[in-house]
Structure prediction request, 454 residues.
Amino acid sequence: MSPFFYFFFGFVAVLLALLFWSLLSPKKNAHSSLDAAAFQGSDRRHVTYLSQIHRALAPADSEFVASHGSVKLAHRVRKERRRVALLYLSSVQDDFQKLLKLAGVIAVLSPEVGAVQEFERLWLSLQFSLRCQMIRIRLHCGFAALHELSGLSRMVSGFAVRMETAIAELGERAALATELTSSLDSRGVRPR
Amino acid sequence: MIESAQVQNILWAANVSLGLILALLLIVRRDYRVYPAFSSYVLVNLIQALLLFLGTYRWGLSTFALWLMGSLTQSIVLIARALAVAEICCRLLSRYSGVWALARRVLLLLAGIVFSYSILLARHDWRLVFQSAHRAMELSIASIIVTLLIFVRHYDVETSPTDRALAIGFCLYSCFAVLNITLLERFLDDYADLWNLLGAFAFLGSLSLWTWTLRKPQSRTEPRQILLPSGVYQSLTPEINLRLRLLNEQLSRFWPAEANHS
Prediction:
């Protein structure tokens, strides 16, 4: 049978899968919603807990527990830390989603948008989600050592500072923030 | 046992009846003012059914004259469908002028590529020329609708459930038509009866969805969208994209390091 025969079936299967996906409501996350606080440098942002998380992931602690405590305790500590790392990864994703959503709202409410900027953002979001999923799978499987998780923590701190600055800069544009917030209200974008 | 021809007649009658109900709903509720292209499409479909009925009565089944009339009327129906889909695209996104301008370019390019590619892949058999063009058109329509709905999801744009239901009806019917025509192209005469039957059945499904959706009157006025000053996008978006890129780069630095350690 001709491969072209299968091509049409494959194409339709892909279209139907995409149709189904596009009709699903995007995952609503309390942390990723765009609200007025996002423009005002709220102290509730995840990065404010960075030092605690960094301390929790310090390799010295796990070495101490392994040498002085029982195997069961060391296992429990590792499990807990993995959970913390996963939560932290989710918070990083939330920060990313927040910026994405902000960019999306600006694009929707703008009379002109640039194709290059829009496709770049789409590409970045795809890459970011894929990477996060890969890291999450590895953390779930227990492949990542604790000192690597500490590396993740340090990595987060780098961009978190930049994020804070970026969002604060946006917050300074009070007029824009007000305008955006009122536009969000009029569009029915769930303000929180 | 019910014969295939009887089932076909029942389905034909059901399609015409439902088409009439839908047309009446559009007229009585004055929704033809909200959906002029879609209403024309429903009307054109009814006229085609009437013409084919008269043609069958006049010339009989499996005649060249009926085939020619079927092909010609189907071309008109396809054009009407394309216009109805364009209308839905417009209704879903045109309030957001920036995103709509981008979506329009993407959708037109995509439709052109999909159409050309489907024509190139078709079997070069003169009996199937019309069916190949029909399939290419249906595949383009389905691709346009899916891409449009992806745009809607990506930008979290508010849409009316009616517009979405109309789009889904068109997309499902187009997907089914592509599969049906592909099977017809492969099995030709052996599949012709079943092809007619399944096609009518798929159309009945879409008609039911549309009739159910349009059972309530639609409001004509869309809330006006307040847009931001044009400079906001140019000043903020590159900045946000830069931050997203940095975030991504940081994550990519973590990932290979982690892979090397394990």
Remarks:
- The first helix of chain A runs from residue 3 to 23.
- The helical segments of chain A are 3-23, 50-56, 59-68, 71-108, 115-141, 146-172, 174-187.
- Chain A has a mean pLDDT of 68.
- The two ends of chain A are 56 Å apart (CA to CA).
